[in-house]
C-alpha cells in the first residue's frame, strides 16, 4: 500500500481492488433499498412527500421526474453486506439500509439549514428551494420514518436494531452540536476534532455496518466488531471529506469552492495545521483569529465577503503547515484500524473482501 | 352538565370534580417523571443541555436556576394513570411519560421556530434566545432521547411502546405540515381542520393515554381503547386551545394577544365561522381573502403590521358567525366521545375517576 497525494488528488492508498466491484456493491445497495425507501417517503403527507423526493433527486424543483444524484449510498451498501456477514441474505439488511439512509438524510436536511449551505449534490438545498420550515419538517419526518421502518418489522431484532440506530442518531446530533460550537472558537484540538467527527460521521457509519447483522440475527459481539470497523471507516471517510471540503473540485463534489473554509469549519486539516507550529501555522492562527474578531461568531455568512484569493491563501497555509499531509495519513491510519477490527470476526471470505473493497473506496474517492 | 361560555371564559362544562384532585394528578405526573426527564436532558452534549434546561424552565436565559413554567404536564399525568389502568403501579408509566413529554417538547421547539412564535410559557422561545440552529438541534436531540429512554428498558413492551410513539410522532409531523399549508389557503373545511388537529394534538395525547398501559403489560385492545379516549380528549383539548388562541388572556396563556389570528391559523373557530354562512361569515371571508392577497403567503409575519383593532374586528366576526359557540360545543362533544371510549374497558373505579377528572380539566382550563 503506498500513499499518493500528488496534485489535487485525495487518494490515500492504492487499492488492490477494481472500482468496478465497488460500483456494483453501491449499485446493489441502491437497487435493493430503493423500493422500500420510496414506499416510506410516499407515506409522507403532502407537501412533505414532494420535498423529500426533491431532496433524494427523484424530482426536480418544478416537480418533474429527475434522475438526480441521491448521494454515494455507501451506508445502504454496507448495511446489506452487514447482513451477509451474519450469514443472512443481503435482503435481510434492507430495512436497516433504509433506516440508516433516512437518518443520514434527516441530518443533511437539518445541517444544510443550520450551516446555511446552499448546494448539495449539484442542486440547491431543500431550505433554499422549499424554505426553512419544510427543511425542518421533512427532516423530522425522515427521522420518524427511520424508526417506523424498523419497528414495523415487529421482531426482537428490530427492537435491538432501533436501539443501536437511536444511539447512533444521538451521537450524530452531539457531533453537529460540537461542529457548530467549533466554528465560533479560535482553536480546536485535533483530539476534539476527531471526537466530533467520530460522533458526526463515525457513529452512523458504524450503525450501517452492524444494523444488517443485527437484523440478520448476529450476536452483540459480532455486531460490536462490525461497529468498530464502521466507526473507523467513518473517521477515514470524514478525513477524506475534510480534504475534499478544502481541495475538492466543485464540479465533482457538487459543493462550493473552499466549502469548509467558507463555513469556518474547524476540520481536521485546519486543526492539524494549527497544532503543527511553525511560521505557516502561526500565520494561519493569526488570520483565523483576526477573522473571528472581525465578523463575530454570530454571522458565519460574512465569510462569503472574502475573496477567492483569501481562501486560496488559507488553503496554502494549511498545506504548508502540514495539515493536508497529516489528514491524508490519518485517513490511512483509520482505514487500517477499520480493517483490523474484522480480524477476529467469523464471516465468509467473499463478505470480508467486500468490506475491504468498500473501505478502500472510501479513501480513494474524489467526491 | 351545562355549557358555560359567558364573558371571556372558555369553560365548556361544569365539572363535578374539584380542581384540587386534578392539580394533585398533574403534580404527581410532574414529580414522578422529573428525575428521569432531567437525567435524560443531562445526557445531552453542551450547549444542548443548557438550551433544553432553558426550554423546560429549569434555568433562565442567563443560566441561573429558575422555577419556570414547564407546561401543564397533562401528558405525563395521563401516562401514569394509563399504567394504573393496566393494573400496574404508576411508576411503570414513567419512561412513557418522559418519552411523550420529550416528543411534545421536540415539537414545540421546532414549531415555534417554523411559526415564528416569540413567546411560550411567559418566556422568549428558544430560537429567539439561543438562535434557530439550537432550536433545530435540541429539538432533534429530544426526539432521539424519547426513543432512547424507552428502548433502553430492553423489554418487548418497550418495543411496542416505541412503535406507538413513532406512529404518533409521524402523525404529529403530518399535522404540523397540514397546519402550515392551511395558513397559505383562503379556505379550510371544518373536516380538514379536525383531521389536522387530530394529527397534531390527538395522536400524541392518545399515545400518552396508552403508553403507560403498554409498559404496564396491557393487551392491544385495552391500549387501543385508551388511545381512542386520548385521541378525542386531544381534540377537546385543541378546541379549547383554539378558543384560547383567540380569546385567551395573554397574562394567563403566556402567548401574544390574538396569537392564532396573527399566525393566520385556520383554527376551528375560523373554519367553523367561514362554513357558517351569513353576513358576518361573508365579511370574514372577504377580510381573510384580501389579507392573503396583500401579504402573500410567504410572509406571515407581515400580519404583525395589522393593528390590535383589526384583530379585534376579526375576532368579533368569528364570534358573530357562530365560530366561537360551535367550537365550544365541539369541545363538549369530543369530551363526551372520549369518556364513552372507556365504557367497555375494565379498570379500577379510582382510575376511571381520574381519567374523568383529567378530561374535565382539559375543557375547563384557562391556559
TrEMBL record, chains A, B:
Q: Which domain of life is it from?
A: Bacteria
Keyword field contains Transferase: yes
Which Gene Ontology MF annotations are present?
Answer: (2E,6E)-farnesyl diphosphate synthase activity; metal ion binding
| GO biological process per UniProt | isoprenoid biosynthetic process
KW Metal-binding (keyword) present = yes
What family does this belong to? Belongs to the FPP/GGPP synthase family.
Q: What is this protein called?
A: (2E,6E)-farnesyl diphosphate synthase
Task: Tell me what organism the protein belongs to.
Answer: Streptomyces smaragdinus
Amino acid at each position: 500500500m503506498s500513499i499518493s497525494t500528488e496534485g489535487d488528488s485525495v487518494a490515500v492508498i492504492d487499492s488492490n481492488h477494481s472500482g468496478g466491484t465497488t460500483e456494483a456493491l453501491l449499485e446493489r445497495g441502491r437497487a435493493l433499498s430503493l423500493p422500500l425507501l420510496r414506499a416510506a417517503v410516499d407515506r409522507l403527507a403532502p407537501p412533505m412527500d414532494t420535498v423529500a423526493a426533491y431532496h433524494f433527486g427523484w424530482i426536480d424543483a418544478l416537480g418533474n421526474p429527475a434522475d438526480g444524484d441521491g448521494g454515494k449510498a455507501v451506508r445502504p451498501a454496507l448495511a446489506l453486506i452487514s447482513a451477509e456477514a451474519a450469514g443472512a441474505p443481503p435482503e435481510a439488511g434492507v430495512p436497516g439500509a433504509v433506516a440508516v439512509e433516512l437518518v443520514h438524510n434527516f441530518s443533511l436536511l437539518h445541517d444544510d439549514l443550520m450551516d446555511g449551505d446552499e448546494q448539495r449534490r449539484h442542486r440547491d438545498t431543500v431550505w433554499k428551494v422549499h424554505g426553512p420550515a419544510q427543511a425542518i419538517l421533512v427532516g423530522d419526518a425522515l427521522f420518524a420514518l427511520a424508526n417506523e421502518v424498523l419497528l414495523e418489522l415487529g421482531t426482537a431484532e428490530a427492537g435491538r436494531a432501533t436501539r443501536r440506530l437511536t444511539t447512533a442518531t444521538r451521537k450524530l446530533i452531539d457531533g453537529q452540536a460540537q461542529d457548530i460550537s467549533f466554528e465560533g472558537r479560535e482553536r480546536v484540538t485535533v483530539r476534539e476534532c476527531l471526537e466530533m467527527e467520530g460522533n458526526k460521521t463515525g457513529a452512523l457509519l458504524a450503525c450501517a455496518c452492524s444494523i444488517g447483522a443485527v437484523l440478520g440475527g448476529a450476536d452483540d459481539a459480532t455486531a460490536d466488531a462490525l461497529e468498530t470497523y464502521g466507526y473507523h471507516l467513518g473517521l477515514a471517510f470524514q478525513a477524506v471529506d475534510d480534504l475534499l471540503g478544502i481541495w475538492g473540485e466543485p464540479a465533482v463534489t457538487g459543493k462550493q469552492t473552499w466549502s469548509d473554509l467558507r463555513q469556518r469549519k474547524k476540520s481536521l486539516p485546519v486543526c492539524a495545521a494549527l497544532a503543527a507550529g511553525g511560521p505557516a501555522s502561526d500565520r494561519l492562527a493569526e488570520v483565523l483569529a483576526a477573522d473571528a474578531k472581525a465578523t463575530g461568531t454570530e454571522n458565519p455568512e460574512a465569510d462569503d465577503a472574502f475573496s477567492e484569493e483569501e481562501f486560496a491563501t488559507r488553503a496554502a497555509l494549511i498545506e504548508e503547515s502540514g495539515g493536508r499531509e497529516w489528514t491524508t495519513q490519518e485517513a490511512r491510519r483509520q482505514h487500517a484500524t477499520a480493517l483490523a477490527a474484522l480480524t477476529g470476526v467469523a464471516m465468509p471470505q467473499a463478505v470480508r473482501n467486500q468490506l475491504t473493497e468498500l473501505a478502500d473506496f472510501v479513501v480513494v474517492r474524489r467526491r
